[in-house]
Amino acid sequence: MAGKSVVSGKPWKASKAAYRRSGLAPTQKTSYEKRMEERRRVQEAKDREQKLRDEKEEERSAHAQKIRARREAKAEKERMELLQSKFHQKVIDRRRRREKRNKMLKER
């Protein structure tokens, strides 16, 4: 015999099948091209997911920035109104004091 035969040649022996190496890692069972194709598909899916996450985060941050700007504008407007009312009140108070002083001078 030139090579090893799977059949023993003895009629009472069961014929043997080729040995299946089940202990091999899954990467060793598949070809390199298949592994690279699977890796490429997984990477493309991850890239798509990351792109969607980035777009969602960008929308969320833009919305938050818009809210922040609106709040700052509102706070500035309230501050200016308060200052205007204070300045107006100061003018009123100054006039009252002046009138009071003039009234006292007239009564002398």
From TrEMBL:
It comes from the Eukaryota. The keyword Repeat does not apply. One of its GO terms (biological process) is rRNA processing. Residues 1-108 are annotated as: Disordered. It is found in: Nucleus, Nucleolus. Residues 87-101 have a biased composition (Basic residues). One of its GO terms (cellular component) is nucleolus. The keyword Nucleus applies. Pfam families: Cgr1 (PF03879). Keywords: Coiled coil, Nucleus, Ribosome biogenesis, rRNA processing. Residues 31-62, 70-81 have a biased composition (Basic and acidic residues). Involved in nucleolar integrity and required for processing of the pre-rRNA for the 60S ribosome subunit. Belongs to the CGR1 family. This is rRNA-processing protein. It comes from Schizosaccharomyces octosporus (strain yFS286). The lineage of its organism: Eukaryota, Fungi, Dikarya, Ascomycota, Taphrinomycotina.
